[in-house]
Amino acid sequence: MVVFPIRPMLGFRALWLLAAAVLLQTGCASKGGVRAPQARASESPTLVMPMLQVHMQGGTAVDEVVVQTSAVEALEVAQRWGVLRELVTLRVHPSHAALESAAHQSNVPWMRGWARFDEVELEAPSRWGGDRVPDHVTELLSHELTHVVMYQRVSDREAWTRVNIPLWFREGMASVTSRQGYRRMTGEQLGTWLRAHPGDDPWLQADALAHGHQPVVYGAAHRAFERLIARHGDDAVHRILDGLKAQHPFEAAFEQAAGHSPVEFLAQFRRELEDVRVWQPAPGPTRVVAAAPSWFSALD
Ligand SMILES: [Zn+2]
């Protein structure tokens, strides 16, 4: 399928932003302290771009505009790792329970979105405050669409669930691409956690730890992927994805691209995180980090 260039859509994006501003003003309008009811979103799917259609299964008209506007930028961010080859359906759900149901997940209160090969499930931004901060919707959609781009890059609709990609790599890629580092544990915080949990591995045991230690698992994933790019560049990630597309196991694809196994890479990274020596803070408002590796400040 032909993929249309993104740039010409920016005029379209400006129009959406204008419409969003009008709708946001309308949504906030009130008389005598009573908030005016928000218009409901349209029920028929909208083709936002040639490769993405939005289906509002709930939410407000403001949600609809914010999601459609954010999706345009998010698509550009996510396609750092390849172009979408299949039309993506993005469903906006009216509640967290509806999102969990659509994602076949339970008891994950922090979850706002879920991605598959050509589908994204999203909790309506107005349910978690994203309607007032569209940048957070762009960030979330960039994260989910990065997953979609990766799945479409390495496989097809029939086989994508059989491609074995570790959680740390999947989530690290999505988190770094959508610039979520400010939400994640710093390298220093991870080092402290790792020293206190010598028997736990937030990368190789990520699935087992994910429910009880979500910030650690996502923080470790983010910092490891960030480290991978700092050391080997985007090219290595592209070569890993090429290896997966060629049906090589993840470990082999990684070793071919990076020159060492993922186990070696993660063990070395763990040692670096654990070795960071932190001086006790001198009197004053800031902590002094000494003997940190050169990449450290770039990560935090
Ligand atoms: Zn994710």
The total beta strand count reads 7
Please give the share of residues in helix. 40-55%
- Counting copies of identical and different chains, the oligomeric state is single chain
Q: How many structural domains in the coordinates? A: 2
CATH topology of the largest domain: Zincin-like
Bound molecules: zinc ion
Largest sheet: 5 strands, mixed
Shape: globular
Uncertain residue ranges: 1-15, 17-37, 278-300
Q: Could you say what the CATH architecture of the largest domain is?
A: 2-Layer Sandwich
Terminal CA distance reads 40 Å
Give the helices and strands as they follow along the chain. HEEEEHEHEEHHHHHHHH
Helix-strand layout with pairing:
Layout: H1 10-28, E1 30-31, E2 34-35, E3 46-49, E4 52-56, H2 61-78, E5 88-93, H3 96-103, E6 113-115, E7 119-123, H4 134-154, H5 167-177, H6 187-196, H7 206-209, H8 214-245, H9 250-258, H10 262-275, H11 296-299
Parallel strand pairs: 4-5, 5-7
Antiparallel strand pairs: 1-2, 3-4, 6-7
Helix pairs in contact: 1-2, 2-4, 4-5, 5-8, 6-10, 8-9
Bound molecules: zinc ion (ZN).
The site of zinc ion (ZN) has 4 residues, from helix 4 and helix 5.
What does this structure look like?
The chain has 300 residues and is of the alpha/beta class. The protein folds into 2 domains: 10-21 and 40-154, Zincin-like, CATH 3.30.2010; 164-276, no CATH class. The protein has 11 helices and 7 strands. It has helices at residues 10-28, 61-78, 96-103, 134-154, 167-177, 187-196, 206-209, 214-245, 250-258, 262-275, 296-299, and strands at 30-31, 34-35, 46-49, 52-56, 88-93, 113-115, 119-123. The strands form 2 sheets. It has a 5-stranded mixed beta sheet. Strands 1-2 form a two-stranded antiparallel sheet. β1 and β2 form a beta hairpin. The longest helix has 32 residues, at 214-245. Zinc ion (ZN) is lined by residues 143, 147, 171, 174.
